[in-house]
Amino acid sequence: MDVTMDGTRQQRRGNTRQRIQDVALALFAEQGYEKTSLREIAERLEVTKAALYYHFKTKEEIIVSIFADLTKPIENLIEWGKDQPHTLETKREILRRYSQILTDAAPLFRFMQENQATVRELRIGDSFKDRMSGLRDIIIDPDAPLADQVRCVSALITLHAGMHFLHDLDGDPEEKREAILEVAVDLVTQAHQGT
Question: Fewest CB atoms within 10 Å of the CB: 29, 67, 148, 173?
């Protein structure tokens, strides 16, 4: 019986932690990271500040945890990619999966874009650059001509740029995501045909 209670309690904790992250990210987007207090996060959640402290002591802990949770799929993708044959289909699959990861983590990436000073201060940008380097290393062929290596890296950049710059355009978000992905896949296909 204790195991079930512990499991249930752990599940509840996980849900509360995620609710805190979601509410904090929404408030950071609405009024800015610097202007948001832990008290406001607790009020929006309708919990006491002490209840919030049980999970997170600072705003920094919250944003670092959001970053870790939402970018874990990138780490998983890199690990998967390292074990795959270096083929065009693998590269296409990496781009497909990465496109979905970016879509799922869009609120975090918007936060990073709008709060660059905080991102620098908390050094989450450095960690993200490391992940991007890992993706770059599995998507390019080091022996390929430089222009083809650039095409492969440009495919990753296309996914990022599309997420940021096409976000406000009219149209179905999924259609936009698919169009961006199509262009990125075209770049790696062209690079692959060049080698």
Answer: 173
Give pLDDT tens digits for 22-31: 999 999 888 8
Cβ-contact 59, 33 below 8 angstroms: yes
| Cα angle for residues 126, 18, 35 (degrees, 5° grid) | 65
- Parent domain of 2: 1-57
CA distance 154 to 182: 13
Question: In sequence order, what are the residues at sequence separation of 6 or more whose Cβ sits closer than 8 angstroms to the Cβ of residue 85?
Answer: none
CA distance 14 to 12: 5
13-17, 63-67, 75-79, 153-157: segment of lowest average pLDDT: 13-17
Report how many domains make up the chain. Answer: 2
Residues 35 and 123 in one domain: no
CATH code for position 5? 1.10.10.60
Last residue of a domain, one of 57, 74, 100: 57
Residue 81 C-alpha from the chain's centroid: 17
Q: Residue 184: in which H helix or E strand, if any?
A: helix 173-194
Hey, what's the torsion of the CAs at 86, 155, 129, 37, to 10 degrees? -130
